[in-house]
Amino acid sequence: MVVQKRTGRPTARRSRVVYRDAEGRETDDPSEAVQGEILVYGHARPVRRIRFFLDRKELPWLPVSEPALLLWVLVGLFFIWSGVAIFLRFT
After folding, report:
1. What whole-number distance in Å separates Cα of residue 24 and Cα of residue 61?
2. pTM listed for this prediction
3. Hey, is 76 helix, strand or coil?
């Protein structure tokens, strides 16, 4: 009986990435892509398919832009964290 020794090295997986711009045309530039698909191949057949899309919608109930809101939330959390730290320092 012949036993082959396994190397224990993982097999190299290939992947194919397809980016699509806003008009649906394929593009090579990821910064222009709004949707796409990533295929990961293992043993010459796709083992995983990842689809992505970016959808830019404004929230109608939000009076400011989303980045501005997130910045204000970050500032608020910083002040809350600072207040808790000062409270714990003096107790």
Report:
1. 30
2. 0.41
3. helix
Asked if residues 54 and 40 have their Cβ atoms less than 8 Å apart, the reply is no
DSSP 20-36: E-TTS-EES-GGG-SEE
CB 75 within 8 A of CB 69: no
Q: Are 36 and 16 in contact (CB under 8 A)?
A: no
Count the Cβ atoms, other than its own, within 10 Å of residue 26.
10
Strands laid side by side in the 14-20 sheet: 26-27, 14-20, 35-42, 45-53
Most confident of 6-10, 18-22, 46-50, 72-76: 72-76
Burial class (CB in 10 A: 0-12, 13-18, 19+), 35: middle
